[in-house]
Design brief:
It is a single chain. By secondary structure, the chain is of the alpha/beta class. It is built from 28 helices and 22 strands. The strands form five sheets. The chain has a seven-stranded mixed sheet. Helix 27 links the parallel strand 21 and strand 22. 58% of the residues are buried.
Length: 939
């Protein structure tokens, strides 16, 4: 008798026993008919779901098997969650998906869809008319329950593409509302103004037409494998949009993403049983299994992360890799949904802001996402309580409340447990239902028909209305949390037995047998055939190479192509002086910044942002107070008036969501420039940079990226406005993020070149950059004496941008006096303080070199070593703290390079910055710099 402990062996034995014992159903039925009179699934479709579920289950068993002899490195499986295959079936294979770690069946079914394996609806399709949009002629359009159109139709024209806009009264509660009901008109003028100003606004009728038209194209691809004869996965230009199914993705020597064909094993033709089996078991499911197994054994041939982590992801499947276990990918999903809507209208308007026929920096990287795509992201029930999930759901609802559209389907897979901690009965449903602006759907994830119907209804609603929804999918968890988990320590035998009784594979099998589509023995044959093939592939991938060198591991982390970045800056200058000169003159009111006289740091950043927005039609500036107010320090003043509220907009007060919007926007194809109002406010959202932004290229080998330039007002020395929130000098957490670029402009004439480099690096290399702006220097005018205006500088005309280009990791050197006695290495506020100290030393006959690092990551090590060696005496002036400060990195770089001269450090005290004059007691002062240099010289 089988036990109720869900070990791999027990689970496998039980499933095999139940399948073998299933009584034969009625006479054979046409597999193209619905499995029941009202079911939205045909027998053939249900068989596909079964195959996806079985493949996922066999992968879980293989993972435990590999781990048993030390060759597998990941055992969190999908057993009990295989109902998410029905969610994949209800979506399109081009809908971007961000999946949590129990998504094996979803991934397998998505692979089958992309390979053309998902069958079209049969004649008995029972799709609800509520999900049947009309085509532009007004004729009814036939769609299946997943929203896939079954007739042919013309592609949507740009004019037909919908955008976001007010579609309901502010604060309206739509829980339980008819999803097909017409939305009431906007009553308040403010909302109407938002609709007019926002280039993504459009009417719901246009949305319906776009849904129908896109569905026709998608259906053609699913049935023929060729979109309009352009070749599988081809774009309108004929260039491949996605890699073919079953390929590995790598990064070549130049940092470009490339694809490599994977092996295709020969498999006996007689290993699959059941009605109309796939002729060769080495099909899409086998290749999906190979992907997952390569991840389990950390194979360098794994198609997305290349052995760096076990993730579900593949570019050709539109599955974006996520490494989070606690829903930190949800803010990115919200940002991506918002960006997709903006891009749709932006593309439809011919890239607003660009002249007809005019080339621009965004033309070569058109986003691959279809214009009516929706974003799906899945997470577990325990993650509902995490701050990232709360932020994402709140942000989606907040924007929906304002009238902006975000087509995101959140999928909460609820097995009732977070490892061993139970979710309180009814808590998840209550929490999800209570989210304002989020439409709630629920389904039993252990019942394939109900799961598919619920997912299809939810997906169709999101696609039609372009608004967020959550699908609450009840599931079970089999075999515990992971391989080392002994669930009997915290679960009773009855609880475990109850989950075993709801095994989704058995539910699918029973329905197939009852419908006369297959017998239990045939399904057991399919199960064994898949198991045999998965085990064979597992044995094959064991011998594949692992990442064996540090250079191989970090290759996709942060590609640096300085020549291309430099060329991008030069090209922008050419456009600004040539084709876009008239638009530039108009944007600056006839007085470009180079003619405005000397500028402050804040004014220079403002002008550089305006030039960048003129050059990049997809660049968006957003954050708290950046639009109407122009930023709390006026740095973004006037940008919204010039470029409109769709490109310069205020966000809600939540740094996690601000960064999430940037992450999603970059992934969708925009060039986001979010602002974090103060450095101290970044710390509650750091993981969005560390775990999400900086890791994207690393865990996708460059197949996905999220270019972004995060502007952060920070550092200390503000006068009259202090305290640790507004004078934060902690940057250690940023310098610890692999691949992150950190720029700190101290002078106005450095600010614009540094910002242009960051933007070009983001566009060319997909870099994630932090542009750390010293608050105390924003409006500084003088250097040595009041009124000298030595800290102002002119703005370079476009013709001088190329010659004034500042590559990532290059410092600036000032010579004071003979410049032969001591080298001061500093950054930010330390630059003007060190220059004043150097002037004092010059009066004493001491020559000084002042090195402005300009880049805190990567540090300009070559410049530091050169300037340190020139004098043999180095004073590091570090306005951050002694512990974890920038100075530690500089001194370590000197030691590593074999520097043998004298070195001394002046740094802030390990303390938060207090209010008022007390701040002077813990921060670096000019006197301390001068005295430090004298001490160094006295050695």
């Amino acid at each position: 008798m089988l036990s109720h402990v869900t070990t791999p062996q027990d689970l496998d034995d039980r499933l095999r026993a139940v399948l073998a014992a299933l009584a034969a159903g009625p006479d054979r039925r046409d597999p193209d008919e619905p499995v029941t009179g009202t079911a939205p699934l045909t027998g053939r479709q249900l068989l596909e779901l079964f195959d996806a579920q079985v493949t996922s289950r066999q992968l879980d068993l293989a993972g435990r098997w590999l781990r048993s002899f030390g060759e597998g490195f990941y055992t969190i499986g999908s057993a009990g969650h295989e109902g998410n295959a029905a969610v994949a079936a209800a979506l399109r294979p081009t809908d971007p998906a961000l999946l949590h770690y129990r998504s094996g069946a979803f991934y397998c079914l998505r692979a089958a869809q992309a390979a053309g394996r998902w069958p079209a609806a049969g004649p008995g399709d029972a799709a609800s008319s509520a999900n049947r949009p009309d085509d532009p002629s007004g004729r009814p359009v036939d769609v299946d329950p997943a929203g896939w159109r079954t007739d042919a139709g013309p592609p949507a024209s740009p004019a037909d593409l919908p955008g976001d806009g007010p579609t309901h009264p502010a604060g309206a509660d739509r829980a339980g509302a008819d999803p097909t009901a017409a939305e009431p008109a906007v009553a308040d003028q403010a909302a109407a103004d938002r609709s007019a100003a926002d280039p993504t606004a459009a009417d719901p009728a246009a949305a319906d037409r776009a849904v129908a038209d896109r569905a026709a194209a998608e259906q053609a691809v699913s049935e023929t494998g060729d979109p309009a004869g352009a070749g599988v996965g081809a774009s309108a230009t004929g260039k491949p949009r996605f890699a073919p199914p079953g390929v590995a993705i790598a990064v070549d020597a130049t940092g470009e993403a490339v694809i490599e064909a994977g092996p295709s094993p020969e498999v006996p033709a007689d290993v699959v049983a059941g009605p109309e089996p796939p002729g060769d078991v080495a099909d899409a499911y086998t290749e999906a299994a190979r992907d997952v197994l390569r991840g389990l054994v950390a194979s360098a041939r794994e198609p997305i992360a290349g052995g760096r982590h076990k993730v579900f992801g593949r570019a050709d499947l539109a599955v974006v890799p996520t490494t989070s276990t606690i829903a930190s990918h949800l803010p990115r999903a919200v940002g991506m949904g918002l960006a997709l809507e903006r891009l749709r209208r932006l593309d439809g308007a011919g890239r607003r802001g660009a002249a007809e026929g005019e080339a621009g920096p965004d033309d070569a990287t058109r986003p691959p996402w279809p214009p009516d795509a929706i974003v799906v992201c899945s997470f577990g029930d325990a993650s509902v309580n995490h701050a990232s999930a709360t932020a994402a759901l709140n942000t989606a609802g907040w924007y929906d409340h304002t009238g902006l559209r975000i087509p995101v389907l959140f999928v909460c897979e609820d097995n009732g447990l977070g490892i061993s901690v139970r979710s309180p009965e009814g808590w998840v449903a209550t929490a999800l239902r209570s989210k304002p602006g989020i439409r709630y759907f629920a389904a039993d994830g252990t019942d394939p028909v109900e799961a598919y119907a619920g997912a299809a209804e939810a997906a169709a609603w999101v696609r039609r209305h372009r608004r967020p929804a959550v699908l609450h999918l009840s599931t079970v968890r089999l075999m515990g949390h992971a391989g080392a988990d002994v669930e009997s320590a915290y679960r009773s035998a009855d609880e475990i037995a109850g989950d075993l009784a709801r095994d989704p594979l058995l539910a699918t099998a029973r329905l197939l047998v009852a419908a006369g589509v297959a017998t239990g023995e045939e399904l057991l044959g399919r199960y064994d055939a898949r198991g045999w093939q998965v085990r064979r592939v597992a044995e094959e991938v064991l011998g594949e190479p692992k990442l064996a060198a540090a250079a191989d591991v970090v290759a996709p982390l942060a590609p640096r192509r300085p020549a291309r970045v430099s060329r991008a800056v030069a090209d922008a200058a050419t456009r600004a002086a040539g084709p876009r000169a008239a638009a530039r003159a108009e944007a600056f009111g006839g007085k470009p910044p180079e003619l405005a006289g000397p500028l402050t740091l804040a004014q220079s950043i403002n002008a550089a942002l305006a030039d960048a927005m003129l050059d990049h039609p997809r660049l968006a500036v957003f954050g708290e107070d950046v639009a109407a107010k122009g930023g709390v320090y006026g740095v973004t003043k006037g940008l919204r008036d010039r470029f409109g509220p769709a490109r310069v907009f205020d966000t809600l007060l939540d740094e996690t969501s601000i960064l999430g919007l940037g992450l999603g926007a970059g992934l969708a194809g925009l060039l986001p420039v979010p602002e974090i109002q103060y450095l101290a406010y970044l710390h509650n959202a750091e993981d969005q940079l560390r775990g999400e932004a900086a890791s994207m290229q690393f865990f996708s080998q460059g197949a996905f990226r999220n270019p972004m330039v995060v502007r952060v007002a920070g550092l200390a020395y503000q006068e009259g406005f202090g305290g640790h929130f507004h004078n934060d000098n902690s940057v250690a957490v940023l310098r610890d993020v692999p691949g992150l670029v950190i720029a700190v402009p101290a002078r106005p004439d450095d600010a614009a070149p540094l910002l242009r480099t960051c933007l070009a690096s983001a566009a060319v290399d997909g870099s994630v950059c932090v542009f750390l702006e010293p608050i105390a220097l924003y409006h500084t005018r003088d250097l040595y004496t009041a009124g000298d205006e030595e800290w102002l500088a002119g703005y370079a005309e476009p013709g001088a941008w190329a010659s004034g280009h500042v590559p990532v990791g290059r410092a600036r050197v000032y010579g004071v006096g003979s410049a032969e006695d001591v080298t001061i290495i500093t950054f930010g506020n330390g630059v003007p303080m060190s220059l004043r100290a150097a002037a004092t030393l010059a009066d004493e006959g001491v020559g000084t070199r002042v090195v402005d690092l300009r880049w805190l990551a990567p540090l300009p090590v070559a410049d530091v070593i050169r300037e340190a060696t020139a004098t043999g005496r180095v004073l590091v002036v570090d306005e951050t703290r002694r512990s974890g400060g920038v100075g530690e990195g500089i001194i370590a770089a000197l030691v590593d390079a074999g520097y043998v001269g004298a070195v001394r450090r002046v740094a802030a005290v390990d303390s938060f910055v207090p209010l008022g004059p007390a701040a002077r007691q813990v921060l670096v002062s000019e006197d301390a710099i001068t005295q430090g240099a004298r001490t160094l010289l006295a050695r």
